[in-house]
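// run 5 | inverse folding | seed 20
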């Protein structure tokens, strides 16, 4: 578990991180999102102390990382690995050498290094590239190499700063699947800084939203998307266009009910016509979640009937826009 307590970081008079209080659970995939300059990379880099904080505390599994020195600091550094948007591979070295580097620096035996490099190359699917140079690999393959290198010292935390931002959608999906598999297999915590909403939806259990160095929202990914969270909406630039006449009711379809025929059943049961004026179905990891806005005539009787019905069916809904 990683806990940020009142963490502040300032660059001259710019507050890059302003009193951040946040808990990232172990063994989760956690997203950090926000506009450019919001402080995402800064926050991520405080975890491996690439950025030092001005005040506050960062606890990793209960230990204040600022107090680590000598051997305990070296052990901690091995526990936290990082991958980047542009892979950061050594262009003049082979893929084998790139992956082997952290092991060589840590003084491992040659035979152990060979075994580990081959195991990781197989895991990430680049076993046949070990003797190539990075320039002969595609972006997706380079990121696989970077992931293998990041895993050499058996980290418990993997920091990803825009790790898929330079990749096409199919390659992004493949890399995300690999990261999900790695998380499961090695039981690590993955923290992803990204501006790609598809990445968030596909892999993140929870997200934190930063704005001008402040933490403005934390929550489960599907719940934040489905509830049309205002901070998230600012990032996605999505807005429903809804009628100004009548009553608009937004109905959310959480996991359990995304496939049922609630709207048609309600129309039949109540004998009321609805217009469906806006809708969205989205995939979140293995689930499909959705929301629909229906519009009904502006009469109190109809409104009461629909509200009663939705309450009885225990459906999540909001009355939005138009007449309240
Ligand atoms: N070394 C530095 N010196 C001065 N200012 C910095 C430094 N690093 C970051 N900043 C500033 O701190 C703020 C947060 O930067 P950060 O890189 O964390 O943003 P970000 O959310 O990762 O943005 P992006 O999505 O563009 O990568 C920005 O205003 C940035 O200009
Ligand atoms: Mg950044």
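// decoded
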């Amino acid at each position: 578990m990683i806990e940020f307590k009142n963490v502040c970081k300032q660059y001259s008079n710019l507050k890059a991180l302003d009193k951040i209080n946040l808990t990232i659970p172990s063994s989760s995939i956690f997203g950090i999102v926000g506009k450019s300059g919001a402080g995402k990379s800064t926050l991520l880099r405080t975890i491996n102390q690439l950025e030092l904080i001005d005040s506050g505390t960062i606890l990793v599994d209960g230990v204040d990382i600022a107090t680590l020195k000598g051997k305990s600091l070296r052990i901690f550094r091995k526990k936290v690995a990082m991958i980047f948007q542009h892979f950061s591979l050594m262009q003049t070295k082979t893929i084998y050498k790139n992956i082997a580097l952290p092991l060589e620096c840590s003084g491992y035996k040659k035979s152990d290094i060979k075994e580990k490099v081959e195991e990781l190359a197989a895991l990430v699917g680049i076993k046949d590239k070990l003797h190539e140079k990075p320039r002969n690999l595609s972006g997706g393959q380079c990121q696989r190499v970077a992931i293998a290198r990041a895993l050499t010292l058996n980290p418990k935390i993997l920091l990803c700063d825009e790790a898929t931002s330079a990749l096409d959608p199919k390659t992004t999906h493949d890399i995300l699947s690999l990261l999900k598999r790695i998380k499961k297999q090695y039981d690590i915590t993955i923290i992803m800084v990204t501006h790609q909403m598809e990445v968030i939806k596909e892999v993140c259990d929870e997200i934190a939203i930063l704005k001008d160095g402040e933490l403005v929202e934390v929550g489960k990914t599907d719940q934040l998307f489905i509830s049309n969270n205002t901070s998230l909406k600012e990032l996605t630039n999505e807005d429903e266009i809804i009628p100004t006449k009548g009553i608009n009711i937004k109905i959310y379809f959480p996991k359990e009910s995304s496939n049922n025929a609630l709207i048609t059943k309600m129309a039949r049961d109540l004998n009321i016509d609805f217009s469906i004026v806006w809708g969205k179905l989205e995939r979140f990891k293995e689930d499909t979640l959705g929301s629909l806005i229906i519009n009904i005539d502006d009469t109190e009787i109809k409104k009461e009937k629909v509200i009663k019905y939705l309450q009885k069916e225990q459906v999540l809904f909001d009355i939005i826009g138009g007449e309240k």
